[in-house]
Amino acid sequence: MDAMSPSPIELAVVGVARNCSRSLRRDIARLRAATAGCGAARVHFLIVESDSDDGSEAALAALAREMPAFRYLSLGALRSRIPQRTARIAHCRNAYIDALRDDPQYAAVTHVLVSDLDGVSKDLDAAALASCWRAGLPEWGALTANQGDYYYDIWALRHPVWCPGDAWEQQRALLPQLGKRAADEVALFSRMVHIDPDRPPIEVESAFGGLGLYRREALLSGRYVGLDADGREVCEHVALHAQLRAQGHRIFINPALINARSTKHAGRKKFWRTLRRRLWNRLRGRNDL
Prior knowledge:
By secondary structure, this protein is α/β, with parallel strands linked by helices. It is about 35% helix and about 15% strand. The chain has one domain: Spore Coat Polysaccharide Biosynthesis Protein SpsA, Chain A (Alpha-Beta Complex). It has an eight-stranded mixed sheet, with helices on both faces. The N and C termini lie far apart (about 60 Å).
């Protein structure tokens, strides 16, 4: 049961997929195991696919035959009419919003778990997901994921102090002055911090981290947008979350919602931190002689 609602939980797990045939079955198995222990009365799966050339649609069809609650939508080849990647992703994400709103089989869904299908939620478990319903949480419209080593999803992140704007836009602006390594460090890696899973929820303007749990009414109050007013690619989650907050829905990073112990995205940060620590230890060893 949801600690903030007397109604039973009915959960829809949704995501978008392109060329996912190698990782799809593993990702769905992990999500099934995690959601089986979260107390939901029923769990649906809905995946929106487009532009695959690796047999992804066949893999999705096989899962649909094996799992009665699994459904997928194939939108075919979108690249010719929607050339920008973020615009295509937003278009596909809006397809699951439309299905959740319009299809009668999802009418009783109370919560929606949005998951990337690129292996980032490889360590999600039932306890992490159940933390979203523990007593004492502030009223929320969305709870997004944390990672065990460093929080990586800086593009989707908006926080008035931690990351007030588009970090990649800042990185590009700094490149001529600082060069790539320093620009990356200032704009991106300095913001990839370790968040202790025992910390209270962190209210943000936007976040994702590969996984987000939404209340139905919150998610359906917005639309994904992958381009800004000038036609430049932007993170599709940011516009959605701005619309949710305008409707009064609060968004938090849930530090206990660990979906990965480590990610490749924070690899360079870990490399440089490890190198600095080894050099420091070596210098200290020399000073002790």
